[in-house]
Amino acid sequence: MSHYAMVIDTRLCIGCCDCVVACKTENKVPEGLNRDWVVEATRGTYPDLTTEFRSERCNHCSHATCVYNCPTGASHYWNGSNIVLVDPNKCTGCKACIAACPYDARLIMHPGGYIDKCTFCHHRVEKGLDPACVSTCPTRCMYFGLLDDPSSTVSELLRTREHKVLHPETGNEPNVYYLT
Amino acid sequence: MKRREFIKLSGLLGAGSVASPLLLSGCTEHPLPGSGTLAETPTFCDMCFWKCAGFVHRENDRPWKITGNDQDLHSQGRMCTRGTGGLGSYEDRDRLRKPLLRVTAKDGSQSFREVSWEEALDFIGKRMQSIADRYGADRFAMINHGYGARHFKHLLRAWGSDSHAEPAFAQCRGPRDTGFKLTFGEGLGSPERTDMEHSRCIVLIGSHIGENLHNGQVQTLSEALRRDVTLITVDPRFSVPAGKSRYWLPIKPGTDLALLLAWMHVLIDEELYDQDYVERYTTGFEQLKAHVARYAPEWVWLETGIEPHLIRETARAMAAAAPATLVHPGRHTVWYGDDTQRSRAIAILNALLGSWGRKGGLYIQERVRLPRYPLPPYPEAKISFRDAHGDRWPFAGQGVTNAILEACIGEDALYKGLLVYGTNLPMTIPGIRPQLRAAMDSLDLVVVVDTMPMEITGYADVVLPECTYLERYDDLRNSGEREPSLALRMPAFEPRHQSRPGWWIARELGHRLGLQKYFPWKDYSEVLDWQLKQVGSSLKEMQQIGVKVFPRTRPRYFAEGQEVRFRTPSGKIELYSQQLKDRGFDPMPEYTRPASPPEGYYHLNYGRMPAHTFGKTTNNPLLFQLAPENTLWVNPLVAGELGIRSGEYVRLANPDGVLSNRIRVRVTERIRPDSVFMAHGFGHRSRRLRLTEGVGADDSDLMSNVLVDPIMGGTGMRGNFVTIIRERV
Description:
The structure holds 2 protein chains of 2 kinds. By secondary structure, chain A is α+β, with helices and mostly antiparallel strands. Chain A has helices at about 20-25, 65-70, 95-100, 120-125, 130-135, 155-160, and strands at about 5-10, 35-45, 50-55, 75, 85, 110, 115, 140-145, 165, 175-180. Chain A has one domain (about 5-180): Alpha-Beta Plaits, CATH 3.30.70.20. Chain A has a 4-stranded mixed sheet with strand order 8-1-10-9. The longest helix of chain A has 9 residues, at about 20-25. Chain A is globular. The two termini of chain A are about 30 Å apart. By secondary structure, chain B is an alpha/beta fold. Chain B has 3 domains: about 100-170 and about 385-530, Rossmann fold (3-Layer(aba) Sandwich), CATH 3.40.50; about 185-365, Dimethylsulfoxide Reductase, domain 2 (3-Layer(aba) Sandwich); about 600-725, Beta Barrel (Barwin-like endoglucanases), CATH 2.40.40. The interface between A and B is large, with 51 and 64 residues.
């Protein structure tokens, strides 16, 4: 199995949302909808403050509750990897996956009549390219690669830097990591 | 049927923007992006002044996306948020479509009539000719912003007029470039010559890199952060870079100059400055030493609120990393009216650290020696912007927009005609609307060239719709950089509607004014091809690669012990400025205490947001989705006192009774209790900007108190106070 992960360095991220626009244009995401978004979390009291910016999206979980809960098989793992895709022709829009996703990553309905979400740009990954968001980020704070490969940048970063995932308690084993 | 209804509802419950009914058919094709027929065209961006080079991609002949060009030094292959969203400017449904001519009905009411290019250009040609016949061709002025302005500058120079100004000077970087020129003999350029990728210590004075997306700066600062640079950010607000800093100094607004002088005091007092550099390259050190002796950190603490030990510690950190220490010159520097002096202080601090001309400080830029297309010399113009300035602002090296506009007012005004290119003056120059109206009453001709129906178009006799940067050739980009390089902007699409490229408009006007010999080309690509062939390239090559990098001919940094003659009167870096002294100004920067807000008022702090380039992009449909309106940052203590909450609308009023448009509150710890903050560029008044009109508040509306820099005419905007008025529900 190919185990893909995205690693995002929150110490470099400036919250500029270039990743959001790059995704929108690359994937022709309809007006008003987004497959990724940026969260700003500020803690403390002036002037003792910290701010963390996080570019968030589908976590392409290793135990994806959306896949297990999809009644039609529309939500599936792509090509023996952990990349979760939705087959538009099998999706009935029943929203079971939305209820099952701990990350609210599927809160969108494509005007074509199916649940749409981040694909990790598998159409680019197939060609050996990074996802659009990763290849656009002006701070180069985003990394993409294989965790099966111990020499990959993502493996190296997770070995050497402190990091976290969102909602580890769900047991979904998310694959978007945040360096802290 | 039932299922269809259900889905429609869920769409509304979701992101809330699925408006059309859904049609489900059986198995439809869902081709993956990039699986169709692809084509790409090089360009350099016009979403802001940074001019990053990239490629415009089409799929099946439809606009797809814009990506960066790996060869480009401005962007290092990565466009920013706005550059990535550049297609929105092409697709904007509110674009100017046809030339517009002001007509007066029988009842005296005025409106615009759509006219042919022929009629619009004939009208302008005749009026310009009549102004030239009655007063002289040089009585025509231009105010401009953006790269396409070059075509119109060329037209007016050929016509015999030499009066132009851009808000980029008196409303933005003028004080900085003037201050550095007075000190080092030259300015910073654009992109600035900051060598952040090699810096070991970076000091930001109110510069919010990351919120301003000056692409190369964002990227080189990121590289520095990756290397664990010592970042020192001075900002009353917890800005994005403040959050990445080792030292954030939350300074009292308007007191930066005191801190800069205290840092000099420490560097000299503790002998931490670069003694060899100062001795070799500078003049006036002894005067400076005596001058800063009284700016002890203990005294400056009372002014700035920055504790003495922190002032010392940060000064030592700068010295420890020197000369790879950059005290960043900033860009928008028209703050308090003493801005040239504050920029001088930044320049002097860099000199003490020995960072000008050194790795990790400020490098030496180089551009390509690109020959100009052979044309006859321009006729001499008897007047220039200096005549509009009179004896004001002796160190204004460029036109001051306000002065040009004032010189358009009255029966005996200096100027009789005005062309405005690519700049929405009512939202750019604080408090300028009365002068604009008066100028419009006096002038014989006002022409506005723009891509969008900005408010400024409402002041015009004729509005000419230029096509966007994605639909035209412009001059080659040849900015001073780390390596000399050229970039090509070429059309990715045919001009939409009846918009036309600037070069075409200028040429057509030139032909009507009998200036054929200055416009011998049929297509501007001929000029570019000729120029490129002089440097061993060609249009054909550039249409493939977009960017060409040339080898440097001189080093990027000073060599050890190199003799350098600076372009100042003394040939040295002038810590003490005899030039300033001779014209009656302080030869070394003096701190003046800024005014404090009256009871119940707050400092009006303003800045950028990464999604937008001021009001230029707020109607862009892609970027509008990211950031449709600005918010008013309010400290929780203030919010509690006033009983206001995040998300609710308020208005702002200044002491002169100016009331803002309504703006949403954002309660955040990131702002001081004595200040509020908003992003500039919102609150458009043009009804033809259907997305952004009336959305958010315009900070420039509230700037009644303009603090003019006596040295160069900059319009200081940060001495304004506002009070918060709850919006009745």
